[in-house]
Each structure stands twice: as structure tokens, then as C-alpha cells.
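Field: COMPLEX_INPUT
Field: COMPONENT_COUNT = three
Field: RESIDUE_TOTAL = 1168
Field: MODE = joint
Values follow.
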Amino acid sequence: MAERNTSFNIILYNSVAVIIGLLISTGLLAFMKINPFDIVARTLSKIFADKYNIGEIFVKATPLIFTSLAFAFTYKANLFNIGAQGQFYAGSIAAVSLSLLLGGRVPRVLLILIVFITSALAGALVGGCIGIAKAKRNANEFLVSMMSTYIVNAVMDYLLRTALQETKAEYMQTDAIVPQSYLSIIIPGTRVHSGFIIAVLAAIAVWIILDKTILGFRIRAVGMNKHAAELGGINTKLIFVISFLIAGGLAGMAGVTEINGVQHMLLRNFNSSIGSFGIGIAILANANPIGCIFASILFGFLNVIGTTMGRLPGTAIPASLVELIEGIVMTCVIIATALRVYMGGKAEKQRMKEGGEA
Amino acid sequence: MERTPIVELRHISKYFAKVVANKDVSLKVFPGEVLALLGENGAGKSTIMKILYGLYKHDDGEILIHSKKADIRSPMDAKKSGIAMVQQHFSLVSTHTGTENIILGNTKGYIPISAYNSKIQKLANEYGFDVPVDVKIEKLAVGQQQKIEILKALYLNVNILILDEPTAVLTPQESETLMAFIKSYVKKGNSVIFITHKLKEVMEVASRVVVMRNGIVVGERQREELEEHDLAKLMIGEEIVAPVRDSSNRWEKLPTILEVDNISLHDSKNTPILTDISFNIHASEIYGIAGVSGNGQDELCDVLCGLKKPDRGKIYFKDKDITDSSILEHNLSGLGYVPLDRLRDAIIPGMTLSENMLLKNSFSGKWSNKGFIKKIELNNYTSDMIEKHRIKATGPADLSGGLSGGNQQKLVLGREVDIGTSLLIFNQPTRGLDMGAVDRIHHVMMEEKERGKAILLISTEITELFEMCDVISVMYRGKILGEYRNGELNTDNLGLLMAGIRPEGL
Amino acid sequence: MTNLLYRTILMSTPLLLGSVAEVFSERCGVMVCAIEGIFLIGAWGGFVGTYLTHNAFIGIMLAILCGTALSALYAFVTVTLGQQQVVTGTALNILAAGFCAFFQRVIFGVPTSPLVIDTLPILRIPILSNIPFIGTILFSQNIITYLAYLLIPLSYYVLFKTSLGLKIRSAGENPVAVDTAGINVTKLRFLTVLVAGSLGGLAGSFYTIGYVGMFTTNIIGGRGWIAFAICFLGNWTPYGVLFGTLAFGLADALSIYIQAVSTSSYFPREIVIALPYALTIILTVMRSNLRVPAVLGIPYKKDN
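Field: COMPLEX_OUTPUT
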């Protein structure tokens, strides 16, 4: 009973926080000397007038589900994986390399399967290194994961300039992969691809692991009280490594959905903020894997709003507005969390005052 | 003539999110007296004093100082009104020196450290406190740390000193020195509020006693009307029958379960923590280790449960060498352990009661099937446990963090008794618990002894040890100072041993 | 060689300011995880102030103001409300990135040519700057660099020799003791974070006013995090971070140098770019026995 009450409260407080965040952001549009409500109305009507635009919400949400899971998973073990961006890049490099190499030469289903596994492994490799640094040397995983992103980014830049560079050798990007390596479109007339379904399945799988299995129990136990978990016979260091391996694997898979599902090539600064958005989404979802699906769709929606606004004729709204909105929304959600806990404590205290008995 | 109180609390109430800490508490403190605040753990004594000291905000009522209404919002306000408090858990920065701790918040700008050192050392000497003030707190013994805490108050020239369970960390001999200090301090016209749950101390120093129970004041006695039985009844509310010890010594003929053979342990700075510890525990034996906190008991537990490996020596459990076994192997081999700090080491407050029961069984396969948790079976087991140990909870899905300390301890007890099929290790299992929970724990220990389990009881409470143990040994600075049958020792001897002194004739 | 060392000192300036900011706040128990955003908003504030007024001093002041404002928000959420520092930092870093990009557009629209400001003039210290070699490296820098280096002994003095420093260090070791001593822990931490924010803002402004003369949204590129890392590696002491900073400043200067001279496309010049980050990881992994402030990152909550 108490628990259901809590999840209801989380949804309530976070929803209100999101709405307040959106209102603040909308208000900021006034700085551009335009009527915010007019702009929002125009943007929304433009989005909902077109099936393609609605589809974009889910296209944008797909990699965010993966990166938010990558943060949420380690968060359950009380670890901070700030490096989902790097793990995503590792997955992207693996995905584009294999698709270029095998595209058209092996059957599509087999190729996609291989690409998924390899990309997950590539992401897990990066994540695993962070986990090992934490387990073996008690390094600050937050710092190491943050730095790892910059290193993977440098590796990617190098490859884009050399081995993987397009045949024309003009820009720092790869050749396009062949259509036989694309993820299939599941809603005609949009860019929504099968990666979205895989992302949702991944979230459900993560939920099952965390909530229903002994491994998930051990991960949560380590996250909530490392000392007690250790005395319970749990190898906390192994849990650190496993958590980071799985988180890295999840972020790596986002590489497939973006390369084989959307962009069909790898380029410089590819989707450069999905890692940090993932963190915000995970927090909005209170690190609940199922919540991550919905929060990702919300952020996908904000993303589409941002890009659509940026393209509205007669305004000069920067597409980076979406970052501003998401930053504000995240801040509001964090403040709402504090408020929810405070109000909860106050309500209990009030009950004590009236009832007087525990 | 009616004396004027220096401090008066009127109808103070304080509510926490989970408990009512104080309800309508009124009391007065007069100059030149030692007011003992007597009550069990959790009776609300510390809370009411933390309110007076400005650490907590009271929800109702008022505080009067020198008959004027005072608004004490922070310890700073309290100090300005001449009130200081030495808390049970010292509030000292362990990486700083005594001087730095004493002047914290009492200086401005540049700190001429050597001038302060000599000034404060002089103050310490004036009161006969034998403690170096320019040494880091972490290098001082607990008794010395307490002196630094008291110096913090003396440095500020306060006239009301609140001491919260000050003897808990002291040897009986150190306690006597403290009592002497208190007596001389109040002679100068100062007042001391002495929080305790020990009747003996009340009888020794108190000029007046206020007894608290469940957050309310249940009685007040003057010095001349003090009577131990009367106070005990006031404090506890109901008679509790201590379990009867089976003194037949039948364990002597039973096999040895745990054999600790000459183990030693050093810390990272190569200071010895444990030196040549040896003892045996038989089936159906309760082996007690007495000693003041911080003499290596916790580290001994760490070694016995597999958390730390000894530098030298061997540990045999049921004739098997377990010195290098992992914690997991210890758990699976039938060793149960109730650690000192349950919130840190034994339970996960954010998890449900069932999950806490699973915590030590996640490898035994008892409640898992192909890696999945058998939730229904686990919940049923937990419900049984709640009933069996009379844990106050609505069901297995409650969060363990929502239980009171006593109920949390009963939860741990139930789990460990099931895991520890041959040996149970208890490290101060009753510390900070109410009488009901203490009684439950003592009864369970006796039952398990009857069932043939070997039990190790580490305690600082002399009464508890005499009540429960077949054999008592004393730990002092990481060494065992002799091993005695229950009956060979009296309180005075045990007290001396705890202070590291071997009494004559023993 | 002279040029390289000169650049080392130059490039280490913002890292020094940023890591000293972290030393103060982390000694007090608060990791300023919004440091990347504070750097960025400082860079932006410095640029806007200087561009609009043609006065670098006003630019610097605006940078400090921006940094302080963002750190105030950070302190409110993490210190006053006691929320997760890492998470809050991430949110505010995104917020800062969006804020700067958005208001850059609000103020300047879509410019046809890049907006440029004059960088800070070099202040030659009389006599000292004439010393060969050393004079060029140490005494022909700009005002922010001098300030940053003066800050090191000053911080040491404040942290270890004064009452304020004692309070700050105690708050990071045992806030209960500080509270019991009658000092408001929340207020102390809040103010310390504000100071850190103002230093971080100044550090950020160095990139626009002191060095590049332009503003782009990726101008900081993780250097805030490096300042954060240096604080760890310098063992939370002002002189410790000085050494760390010089190492990173050298790597930074080297990378710019190599990028300028390398012509062969297969030469992995990215190694040099990645060097500071790799160095951070290596040092973090190697120095595992750091003296971390006991309650670093843990909010202080009174159970009231």
C-alpha cells in the first residue's frame, strides 16, 4: 500500500515538475520577441499534422531508452555511469564497421543480429573497463566514465579521418551503409524502425533482471548498502563490473539503432548529447526501467518540438533550445524530488502529532 | 524559600516522521545541582536535551532561561545562554587536533595555533585532564576524546553542562574520575544534566532525578528519596523476568565448535589491533568477551566472519580450517553473525523485510529457481518470522527502514539464527534497544544454547555478561586478559580487567 | 620551447582556477559537478560583457556573476535541498549549454561573420619580464593568469591558517561537529559553493577573453571536468593542484602545438587531444589511496 502510494506520488510530482519546466521554457521564448504561445501552438499543430513528425518522436526516443537504461542500471548499484555517450560511440563504431563490411554479403536478419551483439560487446568493453577500474583500484567511476567518453570520441575522430573515412575523403564521416543492413521501418511513412521495439524489450528485460532475479537483487543490495551486501556473501566488486558491463552493452546497442536505423552512416559529433539526456531521463523515471520508456518518449517529443520550432519560418529559434528546455525540466524534476520527500516526511509527522501512537 | 531555576522547559513536544520523541515534557534545572535524566534507551532523554542545546527544533512548548523566554535555534544560541552538551557520539573532527576542535567556531581570522595550544593545555591541566591537546583526535583513546569534548564546554565558560551517557565508553575506573570532576564542577555553582540509563550512577551523583519513559516524564525524586527499586520500576514500567541460566556446565563434555588459535591482526599503519587471541567455544556454550568499546572486539568479529584475514594464526570451525575462507563460505557453513552496527552491516533499510531475509541467502538456493526469486515462498517465510519473533510490522513487504531499532534487531536475529546452525556471533546485540527487545534477544540466545549451538557474546554491559555467559574473558588493547568461569569474577574484578589491570589473586 | 612553456602557464590558468574552486568546495563536502557548465557560462558571460562594452573588466565581472549565479542554483539544489550532486551537475551542465546557445542567439541573432573580441593584453611585469627565458614564460602573461597563481598561496593560507579554513575543512570531515559548534553547515557550504562558482566563472572567461577571443558552445570541451579531476589528483590541497595543473597545461599546450605542425593524416594527433583525459584516468586508477574528505558528496541533513 505504502509503496503504491510512493510510485503514485513520484508520477504526480514529476509530471507537475515537467509541466512547470515546460512553462518556464516557453516563457523564455518571449526573449526572442515572439509570442511564446503562438509559437508553441504553431509547432504543435505542425507536428501533429504529419504522421512523419509524430513518428520522429519515437525515432528520437529509441536511443534515449538505451542510454537512460545505461545510467539507471548502474544507478541501482549506486554507481554513476556518466559515460553512456562513449559507450554509445563504441557501439556506433562497431555497428558502422560491420555494416560496411558485411552489408549485402550476409542475410539481413543475421547481419542485424551480429551487429547488435558486437555493438553491445563494444559498449560493454568500454563499460567493463570502468567497472574494473572501480572494482580493482576503487577509482572514482564517475570521473573515469566521464573521461572515457572523451577518449572514445578521440578514437572515433581518428577512425573517421583514416580507416573509416568516406571514399570521397572530403568530410570526417563514413560511407553510407547499404540498405540491406538497415533496420526495417515498422510504420510506413515514418522513420520509426524496429529498433524502437528492441529498445522497449530491452527496458522490460532490465526490469525483469532488476526486480525478479537474484542477480538484480544482489545489484540492488550492493547499491543500497554495500557493507551489508558484502556480509551477505555478495562479491561487491564483481557486481560493480557486471553492472558496468550490462550498462555499457545497453548504451552500445543505441549505436545500432542510430546507425542502422536512422543515420545509415557515422559522422563526427554523432548524436553528441544522448548520453547526458539519458541521465536526465533516468532521473525523471526515478531509475525505473519501464519509466525510462515513457520518459524517453517525452524527451523525444521535446526534441521534435525543438527541431520543429527551429525550422519555423520567420523565427530564428536555435535548435539548441531543446537543451535549454531539457535542462530546465531536469532541474525542476530534481527539485520536485526533494519537495516530494520533504512533504512525505511532513505528512507522516502530522499523522504522528494527531495519532500520537506509532 | 523557592529557588529560581536557571533553566526551565515547559510543555515541550517533539515529533519525528516515525516516532513521537517527546510529549509535554516539563522540567527545571537549578544552579549547583546534578540533575539526572534517567530512562531506558529511546525514552526521549537525548532528544529533549538536544532541543535545549538547539540541535532540534521543538514543535510545541517553550524554554525559559533565568525565567526569561529564550529562543534557542542553534547550539550557538545555547552557548550564549551558557549551555553546552557532550553528546553520546562525540562530535569531533577526527583528523584535526584537540585544539582545532575546541576553537572551531570560536575564533576569527588568523589562527595563532601555538598560542591556542598552550592556552588550552593550561585549561586541561587546571581541571586535571591528562590529555595532549595538539594531537589528532584519531590518535587519542576514547576516554581522552571525551575529555576534549568536555574541554570544549569548559573553554566556553558555560554554567550548564549536559552529558549524554558519558560513561558508556569508559572503564569503571575512568567513570569514577568523571564523577569526581562532576562533583567539583557543580560545587562552583555550575549545573550538570546527566543523561543515563544506569541506576548506579544516578545513586552516586544525582542531586535530583527526573525519570522518562516513552517520551514523557513519569516521575521526579529528590536526592533524599532515591531508592533503586522505585526508580527501576518507574523507568521500566513493568517487571521483566531475566531468563534463567543453565549452570549445569554440560557444554564441557560437548565438542568444540569454534577454535581460535593465536590470531593477530595489524592495521595499515602496522599498529597491532589483535595480538595472539586464542579461545575455544563448545556446543551449548555461551562465551562472553567483556571490554570497553574499541579494544579490538569489532575487528575480532571482522576476522571471525571472514571480512578480514588475520596476519597470523588459524581459525577452525567444526574442525575445518576457515582462516582463508570467504564471507560466503562462512555464511554457507552455518555461522550466524549479529553485528554491532545493524544499519550499516546487517540490514538494508531501503529494502523490504523479505528482501532483507534473502540478503544472506542469495547463494544458498533456498529461495531461488534458475536465477529467479521465489517470491511467494520467501514472503511466507518472512511472515512466519514476523510472527515468531513478534516483529511489529504489517507484512513482509514493509520496508525494514520503517521499523524501530528493536524490531530491526529481531529481524536480524531471526535471520542469523536460521543461518547460524552451529555458531552465533553477537557483537553488543542489545546496545540501544528497549527492554522488550533486549529480553527477546536474551531468551533466543538461551534457546539456541539449549539447541546445542555455540554462542559468542561480545558485550560492554557487565550485567548482561553475568546473566548470560558460561565463560567470560576480557579484551583489552587487542589482547585477551584471562578467561574465567562465570562466578569466578565479581563486578569490581571485571571492571579492573576492563581497564587493563589484573586484580590480585586472579 | 619557450613558447611551449609560455603556453603551458597560459593554458593552465583556467584549470588552476577551476581546481582551486573544487578544492574549496570539496574540502567543505560538496563536489561542484556543475563545473563544466560554470566554465561555459563564465566563458559566455565574459564574451558577451566584453563584446557589448568593449571593456574586458566588465566582461570578467559578468563572467564571475554568471558563474556565481549558476553555482547558486547548484548550491540550492544540492546543499539546501540535499539532492544528488552528480545528477544535479549533469542537469545544470545541460541547462548551461542550452542557456548559452539560446541567449547567444537572442542577443546576437544569426551573425553573418564570426563575432570577435580582443583578448586580454599581456601585462609585462617591469624588470622581471626582462629576465631571459623565465621572463617570457612567467612574467609576460595576462592579468587572469597572475591572479590564478597568486590564488594558490592565498588559498593555502585561508584553508590552513584561518578560522574560516578550519570551519570549511571541518564541514567536509564531520559536519555534525560543525553544527554542534554552532556553525550553520548549510550556510557555510552554500557560501563556499558560491565562491567556487565565482572562481569557475572567472576560469571560464579566460577561454573567451584571455585566449580564443570568440565564443562557441563547445569551447570548454570537458576542461571543467579536468579541473574537477585535478582537485582529486592534487589531494585536495592548493599546492597539489598546482602540480596537477601544470601537467595538464603542458598536455593542452602540446596538443595545440602538435595539431599545428602535424601534416601526415595518419599520425594520430587525436592521441594528444585524448592525453589529458587518459592521464586523468591513469592517475585516478594509480592513486587509489587519496585522502578524500570524509563526507565528500554526502548532503548534510538534520533530522528535524
